[in-house]
Structure formats: C-alpha cells, structure tokens
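[Automated response] Your request has been received and processed.

Submitted sequence:
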Amino acid sequence: MLSKSNLRMLLPAILVIVTFGLLYAETPSFLSLSNIGNVMSFTSLIAIPAMGLAIVMLTGMFDLSFVGVIGLSSVLTSFLLQNGVPVWICLVTALVLCLACGLLNSFLIVNMKIHPWLTTIATMLMLLGLEKFISKGNYVPAPSPLFDAIRFGSFLEIPAALWIVFATLAVVLVVMHTTPYGGYLYAVGGNIEAAKKAGLKVKWIQYAAFLAMGGLCWVSSVLYLGQLSGYPSESAYINQLSVILAVYFGLAISRKNVVNVLGAFVGALYVGFLANGLGLMGVQSYWIKMVEGVLVIFVVLGNSILRGDIVTYE
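Generated structure:
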C-alpha cells in the first residue's frame, strides 16, 4: 500500500488520465484500444532503460550514458545487417558492446573513483560521437524479418514489442524480489559502509548493476530497431529526459521513498500517456519536453519536501 504522502504524488498521474479522458469523451481517441496500444509501444522505449537506471540508482550511483549505448548498439546492428551479416551475429555483437560499456562505466566509477555523473556524461558523449560517425547523422535502416516481426507481429492481439517489455519486466522483478541480489542492491544503496561491514562484495554488486544496465540497453536497442525499422540519429538521446522523469516518478510514488523497478515502469506509463495526451491536443513536441523538464523538478522537489531532505545553502 502507498502512504498518504505518496498518494499526493500520484495525483498528477490521476489528473492526466481523467483530464484527457474527459477531453476526448465524445471522440474517444485517447482511451481507444489502438491509442493505448500506441502509447504502450512508445512507452516501451522509455520503460526498459528506466528499469536499468533504477537498478543503477539503487546502488547510489547514476548513469547518463545509456542513450549513447542504445544509439551505438542500434546503428552498429543496422550497419552490420546492411553488410550481409546474419542477424544473430549482429545481436550478439551488440550485446557484447552494451555489456562492455557497462564494464567501462563501472571500472571508471568503482575502481578509478571518478564521479558517476562525470564518468557517464563523458562516456555518453564518446558513444554519441561514435554513433554519428557510423550513421553520419542519418536514419539507418535495419532490414531483417526479426525486426519486422517485432514491429508488425502480435500475439493475443497484443503487439510483440509489449510482450518483450512485459517479459523483461517480469525477469527483472523476479531477480529483484526473489534472489539475494535484489536485497544486496538495497543494502549497498542504503548504507555502503554497513554493507561492507556485513561482508557484501560491494564492488561486484555495483559492477553487476552496470552490467544489468548494459543488458537492458541492448533490449531497448532491439525495440528501437523493431518499432522504427531502423534507428533515427540520437533517438534515444531525445528520450533521455523522459527516462529520468519515469525513474523519479517511480521514486515519488514508492511507499518507502526508494527507487524501484516497478515504480520506474509505472512512471514510464505516466510519461507516455502525458506526452500522448498533449500531442492529441496539438501541443508541439518542444513544449511537451518543457513540461517534462518542469515535472522532473516538481517530482524531485516534492519528494524531497515529503522526506525532509531539503538542503539550504548560506
């Protein structure tokens, strides 16, 4: 159950659903099954990296490089496909790349003690540069029956992309809630010194968090290529703010005021329906991004006020 303070933070999401539902009551485009399916498909591009970011944040760290990892993985896969490489080799190569990026981030942060923000901003810029080097800043198609199946396929009238998202969410939740690793993450993020004294291998836990982020970036890359039949330059970068908002929204609605994977997924749904509703109203994309930016501030500030974590500087 959610506490009363957390329920206050749910009000924006409730207001979004109710407001847009009433606005389109006569022409129910907002609540139509086709529109909900489209929103859910768009949300998948936010939800997967949001889950990875939540895992990293549970250890007390942060990762901004995921947009570069997704972008480079996507354009590399597309480039290899266009040169006749079998799709399974392309996917394995992309997975190795994503995991290598996770290892690089964790090495620089955990072993070299470089601040997570500085580290992941630097790696993000490097990866975005490599992405543009391969794509030349253009849309890179990914010709493959596999990606066509992800885009057009369905099972029980549910798009294939959503099955991938639900399966990923289920696997992550099982790992987080039924294995010792989930508890280790919370222990490290809660008090790293206490975790060390308890005998936990903190460095390995932090490494595993970044590896999980790399794996989820790979899944996200597959979804981008499937839903867009290729990769438009910097598509993941455009969604970066939405991913961060989803994670912090999940933090705000958490009963214990901690980052959590399921909350990040719910936050992604909120962001998706908000953007869709504003789009149906004719709001331009740049105004939607401005709204998301303002919401990040309000969600983080509101959560800090409720926890009494506001810090003043004199």
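Summary generated for your ticket: The beta strands are 140-141, 154-155, 158-159, 230-231. Confidence is low (pLDDT under 50) at residues 310-314.
If you did not submit this request, please reply to this message.
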